[in-house]
Amino acid sequence: MHPCSDSRAGQERRGFEERQPHHAGIAALERFDEDGGAPLDRVGASLVARLACFPVALDLLRLERALRLAARGQRLISIFSSDLEPPIYDQPAFLNTIKRFVLGQKFAKVRVLVREPGRMISNNNRFVSMARRLTSYLEIRVLAAELRQQTASYCIADDRAIVYRLRADRWDGISSLNNPPVARQYLQEFDVAWQASTDDQHQRMGAM
């Protein structure tokens, strides 16, 4: 038996099964797939359990979902993250996709909210370097202090596609490339947090 088949994989499976949806949007997401009308493409209990001992494989899976979403973007991509997670947002494939998006679409914009900017900077994240070069298209803000208890990690393309994890430190999550009602719901939450993250915080982020 694989040494982590009963421990880590079992914990992931139990945690996923025991967790109840925290938001009406999660329940709605479960009723859609990428084209609408069928069960949602969900990265959860069974797959996480099988891959729990192979974190690189899970990171690649998360990256693949983010790439598919970013490729669908036409005018706006919104990212909510703890520290611009390097296995996703600091990868050449994702950086190139974002660069093509902002330079190839008229009025394209990428907004990023981060909870832990210190960790992001200490990782020398290349997304930050790209944002400094493309300031007209990419904007990073530090999440307002009163909102930093939020644990989710998600990416939204326009008001239609979403990749969402309830906790940034867990692998399981949900995704849909065509679910406007739920994408708009979380986009509204992002907009509120974006406005609450003050200009002073934004300036400090830009100075890092």
Describe what you observe in this structure.
The structure is a single chain. The N and C termini lie far apart (47 Å). The longest helix is centred in the first third of the chain and has 18 residues, at 55-72. This protein has 208 residues and is of the alpha/beta class. It has one domain (8-16, 23-207): Endonuclease Chain A (Endonuclease, Chain A, 2-Layer Sandwich), CATH 3.30.870.10. Helices cover 48% and strands 16% of the residues.
Set down the secondary structure blueprint.
Layout: H1 8-18, H2 24-29, E1 41-43, H3 45-51, H4 55-72, E2 76-81, H5 86-89, H6 92-104, E3 109-114, H7 117-122, H8 126-133, E4 138-142, E5 153-157, E6 161-165, E7 173-176, H9 180-196, H10 199-207
Parallel strand pairs: 2-3, 3-4
Antiparallel strand pairs: 1-7, 2-5, 5-6, 6-7
Helix pairs in contact: 1-3, 4-6
Briefly note the structural class of the backbone. alpha/beta
Highest-level CATH class = Alpha Beta
Total count of domains: 1
Name the CATH architecture: 2-Layer Sandwich
Radius of gyration: 17 Å
In short:
The chain is built from ten helices and seven strands. It has 208 residues and is an alpha/beta fold.
